[in-house]
């Protein structure tokens, strides 16, 4: 890890319509670091992810990637700079096949280890269904496509928003074990979850958000369950 | 702040002044036959009729979100209703206009059943197709003159007055009364439950529906009321012209395009907008209408610029800038310090 | 046998309507835009072809090589400069802006070319026909036009299904925000969709101008035919739209055979009938 963190947020504030969703967020993610971002529904986690990819405009503060200010960079240029998102609810392109969805991810043409072969190696199930329509896939398979689509851009920073949403526990374990192998080689990631258990297991850092603010941050083992629960619910 | 220190009102000093102004205008216009010559009366009649169309289109589009480019359907039906009744029943033309408008309003219900199946711009184009169907059908029916149309029977014209001057005055007063009724009809509808429902639908249709607002029924009410008013206006327009043809009665450029430009320039979705637009339009018409196509090109260009840079039009701009409203339509929240 | 000829003629005409329609449904599919000026841009391409055939002395078919790129570029620029500014939650601006554009084009063409009827000349091809048996005759020109229409639609289909650009257009159409996150500049993609839309309709606009007269006010009717074909065929289905165009063409031809004044009205009535009985279209998939 160099002196400049991979991602650095300073005093970030953002609105969702008239509603202020993020207040003065400061956050550093180092190269190779995996941060778990937990918090209740509506705490601002997804808005934070959306502001990182440029879908939600930032009202104040700054976002830097490898020391470069990208606060005003248009959403469609951010993937070229190395930020990829696995969005909440997966949001795959339903009129595209599995493979076409993955190829869309490769649009930026960034070099790196991830290509169709590598994705199919990680998720062999997808190789069998490469020509399938998205709607015929199970929820877990769709989540694999969403992860694969993000990886295809060979990002420096992977943002995962609620990977476990709507999936059976056994599928969630499978997805997280894949994620563990993905970040093993030094890819930085922010993993947003409502489920504290899953997220903390693969993270080097744990952050808890409540009402648009980061209310807790540090190494996961620093905090007891009570600490986390207290900041999660604000009691 | 305690709850009793806040109040909501629709009125302000501006709205009181505006009401006085409206009253003065009404007196001036009502007495126009006493002081104005035939040319001015005709110009004012035209103005009232166009203003009626503009307010009705704005009611439909700006408040109910039903973007129609086929209102010429109702102008034409109103006109043909008048001419047909006059030819075959010999009723007084003004009575015929009223009956025709009621029939057209009833007809608009099955039209709505058909057109409401499409949304947004598809609704817009199909409303136009419907008007085209009526125009082409009128060309087919020999009893109403086919494609050459028909004239108002002389007896019907005479029923409005033996001399042309008397006739102009009658039509002028009818157009003025129709305008007043249309304006107050829209005004009171907007203040009623339907108006509240419209505001709710405009702000968020989904939320309005889930709070028990029947959006389709509300839109249907506006559609039918607009059809009624547009048919009445159409009847009066062609009563003044004494002659109707399918192409003139169902003309999109005369009865919809110009009206759209007036409303867009004045301000869609504001009560005052169409009035401002119609006044401007008539002030400019005298000087620019001779330019023909160039006039239409500039109207189109102005409408585009307004839609892009200021979609609420001239009046919307004025209102937002100075927090002004002339007619007491929206509540303003006042605290004791202000009032 | 007269009827068979009528149906064949209608089918050929329907191919052109299908091209108008596919231009419309392409931009609706990608950016939910309905361009009221669509028909006027179709007529504009016919006038452009008129100028090119007259000044350069080339055949209308050859003029396509110039007309199509020009109109496609106009489409891209219109989208980037005008329509992109109107996209959002409010449905009024795109409708009214394209309506304003429609009036501007109609009147602009009127000033430039007067209101006279015009027609593109294709020489001996116009009267050549293919006889099958004793009674059935297919005009070579309509046949050629139909073949071109089907070919253009097939090419568009392949472009959308098989190419990188097509994949991008589908992605943008599915989820605009996610397409942006994946690196697509939606404003550019919308421009590409409009360029394709108008490129296709320019072909149809020139072809139909070889077959019948046009004047500055002919645009709205062409917009309506395209729109009717979309609804009759079922929104969002490229082959349904082709069939919708053919149904409309055949109905118009039959109506016209009964009474020439009935031609257009027959088409409108079938459209209203479909709207009443099967709003999802004859060949549409129910949503």
Automatic annotation (TrEMBL), chain A:
PROSITE patterns on file: ABC_TRANSPORTER_1 (PS00211), ABC_TRANSPORTER_2 (PS50893)
GO biological process, one term: L-amino acid transport
Record-linked SUPFAM superfamilies: P-loop containing nucleoside triphosphate hydrolases (SSF52540)
Annotated ABC transporter domain residues: 7-233
Highest taxon in the source lineage: Bacteria
Short name of any one Pfam family annotated for the protein: ABC_tran
UniProt entry keywords in alphabetical sequence: Amino-acid transport, ATP-binding, Nucleotide-binding, Transport
SMART domains in alphabetical order: AAA (SM00382)
Keyword set includes ATP-binding: yes
InterPro entries: AAA+_ATPase, ABC_transporter-like_ATP-bd, ABC_transporter-like_CS, BCAA_Transport_ATP-bd_LivF, P-loop_NTPase
Gene Ontology terms for molecular function: ATP binding; ATP hydrolysis activity; branched-chain amino acid transmembrane transporter activity
Family: Belongs to the ABC transporter superfamily.
The protein, known as: ABC transporter ATP-binding protein
Organism, scientific name: Metarhizobium album
TrEMBL record, chain B:
Membrane-spanning ranges: 60-83, 95-116, 171-190, 220-239, 259-284, 291-309
InterPro entries per record: ABC_transp_permease, LivM-like
GO-annotated cellular components: plasma membrane
Membrane topology: Multi-pass membrane protein
Keyword terms of this UniProt record: Cell membrane, Membrane, Transmembrane, Transmembrane helix
MF terms (GO), sorted A to Z: branched-chain amino acid transmembrane transporter activity
Superkingdom, taxonomy of origin: Bacteria
Entry-linked Pfam families: BPD_transp_2
UniProt keyword annotation of GTP-binding present: no
Localization terms from the record: Cell membrane
Cross-referenced PANTHER family: ABC TRANSPORTER ATP-BINDING PROTEIN (PTHR30482:SF17), HIGH-AFFINITY BRANCHED-CHAIN AMINO ACID TRANSPORT SYSTEM PERMEASE (PTHR30482)
Record's protein name: Branched-chain amino acid ABC transporter permease
UniProtKB/TrEMBL annotation, chain C:
CDD domains in the cross-refs: TM_PBP1_LivH_like (cd06582)
Transmembrane segments: 12-30, 37-55, 61-79, 91-115, 135-160, 190-210, 230-251, 263-285
Membrane topology annotation: Multi-pass membrane protein
Annotated localization: Cell membrane
GO MF term set: transmembrane transporter activity
Alphabetical keyword list: Amino-acid transport, Cell membrane, Membrane, Transmembrane, Transmembrane helix, Transport
Annotated Gene Ontology cellular component terms: plasma membrane
InterPro entries the UniProt entry points to: ABC_transp_permease, BCAA_transport_permease
UniProt record, GO biological process: amino acid transport
Family: Belongs to the binding-protein-dependent transport system permease family. LivHM subfamily.
Record-given protein name: Branched-chain amino acid ABC transporter permease
Species assigned in the record: Metarhizobium album
């Amino acid at each position: 890890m160099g002196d400049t963190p991979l991602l650095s947020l300073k005093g970030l504030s953002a609105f969702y319509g008239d509603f202020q969703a993020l207040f003065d967020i400061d956050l550093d993610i180092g190269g190779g670091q995996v941060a778990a971002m937990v918090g209740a529904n509506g705490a601002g986690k997804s808005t934070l992810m959306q502001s990182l990819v440029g879908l939600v405009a930032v009202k104040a503060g700054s976002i830097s990637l490898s020391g470069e200010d990208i606060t005003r960079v248009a959403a469609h240029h951010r993937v070229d700079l190395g930020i990829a998102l696995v969005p909440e609810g997966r949001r795959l392109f339903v009129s595209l096949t599995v493979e076409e969805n993955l190829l869309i991810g490769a649009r930026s043409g960034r070099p790196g280890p991830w290509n169709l072969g590598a994705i199919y190696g990680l998720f062999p199930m997808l190789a069998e269904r490469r020509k399938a329509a998205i709607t015929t896939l199970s929820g877990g398979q769709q989540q694999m496509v969403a992860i694969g689509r993000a990886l295809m851009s060979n990002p420096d920073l992977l943002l995962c928003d609620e990977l476990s949403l709507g999936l059976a526990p056994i599928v969630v374990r499978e997805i997280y074990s894949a994620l563990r192998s993905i970040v093993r080689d030094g890819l930085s990631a922010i993993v947003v979850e409502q489920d504290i258990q899953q997220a903390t297991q693969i993270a080097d850092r744990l952050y808890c958000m409540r009402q648009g603010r980061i209310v807790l941050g540090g190494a996961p083992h620093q905090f007891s369950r009570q600490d986390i629960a207290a900041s999660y619910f604000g009691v | 702040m305690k709850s009793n220190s806040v109040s909501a009102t629709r009125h302000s000093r501006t709205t009181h002044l505006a009401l006085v102004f409206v009253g003065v205008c009404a007196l001036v216009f009502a007495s126009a036959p006493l002081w104005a010559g035939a040319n001015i009366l005709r110009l004012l009649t035209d103005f009232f009729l166009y203003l009626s169309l503009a307010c009705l289109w704005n009611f439909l589009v700006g408040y109910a979100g039903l973007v129609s480019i086929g209102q010429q359907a109702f102008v034409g039906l109103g006109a043909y209703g008048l001419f047909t009744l006059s030819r075959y029943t010999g009723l007084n033309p003004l009575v015929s206009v009223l009956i025709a408008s009621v029939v057209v309003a009833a007809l608009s219900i099955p039209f709505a059943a058909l057109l409401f199946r499409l949304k947004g711009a598809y609704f817009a184009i199909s409303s136009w197709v419907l008007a085209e169907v009526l125009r082409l059908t009128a060309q087919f029916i020999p009893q109403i003159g086919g494609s050459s149309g028909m004239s108002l029977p002389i007896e019907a014209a005479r029923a409005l007055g033996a001399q042309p001057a008397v006739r102009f005055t009658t039509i002028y007063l009818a157009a003025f009364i129709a305008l007043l009724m249309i304006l107050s009809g829209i005004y009171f509808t907007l203040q009623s439950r339907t108006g509240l429902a419209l505001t709710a639908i405009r702000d968020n249709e989904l939320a309005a529906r889930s709070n028990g607002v029947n959006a389709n029924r509300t839109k249907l009410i506006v559609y039918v009321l607009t059809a009624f008013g547009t048919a009445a206006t159409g009847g009066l327009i062609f009563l003044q012209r004494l002659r109707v043809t399918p192409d003139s009665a169902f003309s999109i450029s005369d009865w919809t395009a110009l009206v759209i430009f007036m409303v867009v320039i004045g301000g869609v979705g504001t009560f005052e907008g169409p009035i401002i637009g119609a006044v401007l339009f008539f002030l400019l018409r005298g000087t620019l209408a001779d330019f023909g196509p160039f006039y239409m090109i500039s109207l189109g260009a102005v409408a585009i610029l307004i839609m892009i840079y200021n979609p609420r039009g001239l009046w919307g701009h004025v209102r937002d800038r100075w927090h002004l409203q002339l007619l007491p339509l929206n509540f303003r929240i006042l605290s004791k310090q202000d009032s | 046998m007269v009827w068979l000829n009528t149906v064949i003629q209608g089918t050929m005409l329907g191919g052109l309507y299908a091209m108008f329609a596919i231009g419309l449904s392409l931009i609706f599919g990608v950016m939910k835009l309905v361009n009221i000026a669509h028909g006027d841009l179709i007529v504009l391409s016919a006038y452009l072809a008129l100028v090119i055939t007259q000044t350069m002395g080339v055949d209308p078919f050859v003029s396509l090589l110039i007309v199509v790129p020009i109109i496609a570029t106009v489409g891209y620029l219109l989208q980037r400069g005008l329509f992109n500014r109107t996209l959002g939650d409010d449905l009024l601006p795109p409708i009214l802006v394209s309506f304003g554009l429609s009036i501007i084009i109609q009147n602009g063409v009127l000033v430039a070319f007067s209101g006279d009827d015009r027609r593109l000349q294709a020489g001996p091809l116009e009267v050549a026909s293919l006889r099958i048996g004793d009674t059935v005759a297919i005009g070579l020109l309509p046949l050629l036009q139909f073949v071109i229409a089907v070919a253009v639609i097939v090419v568009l289909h392949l472009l959308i299904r098989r190419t990188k650009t097509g994949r991008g257009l589908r992605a943008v159409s599915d989820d605009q925000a996610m397409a942006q996150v994946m690196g697509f500049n939606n404003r550019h993609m919308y421009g590409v969709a409009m360029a394709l839309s108008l490129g296709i309709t320019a072909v149809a606009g020139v072809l139909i101008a070889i077959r019948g007269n046009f004047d500055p006010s002919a645009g709205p009717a062409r917009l309506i035919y395209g729109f009717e074909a979309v609804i009759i065929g079922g929104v969002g289905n490229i082959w349904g739209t082709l069939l919708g165009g053919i149904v409309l063409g055949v109905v118009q031809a039959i109506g016209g055979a009964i009474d020439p004044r009935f031609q257009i009205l027959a088409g409108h009535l079938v459209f209203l009938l479909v709207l009443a009985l099967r709003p999802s279209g004859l060949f549409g998939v129910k949503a």
